[in-house]
Amino acid sequence: MRQESPAAQQLSDANVGWRRLRNVLFAKPSRDQLLIAVLCAVLGFAVVQQVSIVNSDEVLATARSEDLVQILDSLDQRNQRLDSELATLKDTKARLESGQDAAATAAKERQVRDAELGILAGTLAAQGPGVVVTMTGPVTSSLLLDAVQELRDAGAEAIQINQVRVVAQTAFETGANDEVVVGGVTIGKGSGTYRLTAIGDSATLASSLRIPGGVVESARTAGVKVLIVEKSEVKVSAVLPAKKAD
Amino acid sequence: MIAALGLIVGAALGLFLQPDIPLWLQPYLPIAIVAGLDALFGALRALLDGIFSDRVFVISFVSNVLIAALIVFVGDQLGVGAQLSTGVVVVLTIRIFANVAAIRRKLFHG
Prior knowledge:
The complex is a heterodimer of chains A (about 250) and B (about 110). Chain A has about 250 residues and is an alpha+beta fold.
């Protein structure tokens, strides 16, 4: 549709070109020119429309189907990629969370066991229901050991004699001059007052000492006065130094 | 003069009216625009050559747009619409460059 002819070569003067342009610009409007103007208006209209379509979100609405398929394809692939990434991250999250839970549970359990073992090993003070046994007279270490064994059998969790904590390894000895030595500490010699404090079910502890032929009877035979007081709250405050684990 | 005015008026109408272009027409709009631009530059060149004719311009404009749209339409039916519209745009763009070069020579190089 290019409008050209051999005549174009003959009119190659720049002034001619400008003059023609000027002539057209200031020509009187005619019916034919009106038609041209209408076509130009349509063109301008279309350009503005297209630009507004491209700038709007409706690009997809004007795309042809194969382009849409391609776009959909790439979106699908992207979706899959993101899905697998999401799965991986969820996995990691679950792992981290369960790990955290396990660590927290382990820490809590450790604390509980720490407390239990601390009381058993005598490195922690303890308090709770229990009995206070006061023996007055010629107490021997074997009498104290009997009492302690009886209390242990009755379920005593923590026992203290005077200011000495009694644990599994505590030795009861009689010194060269009949001293009473408990756990390496001399707590008395001959007649004197000894105080046993034991934590556990107070009624059970008390009756375990009072059974016929038990500690109380044999103590009386030996001339020792025994006073048992059941209390809802006693304190075992003596502690042993904690040993480092081997 | 009146043609330039028409261009401006059309653009203004498009800006202010914002009508909905029918969906079936939308794929052909960009191609039609490029074809129209080609006709416009061809007309400008003919004008400077002194051989401009209103009738030729109108026919050239309309047929340019129609043929371009037709090619793309056929391409869409054959499943090669994207490639054919690219081809149409390339050809029309080459023509526009050639016309603009001719116009430039007329106006500035004598």
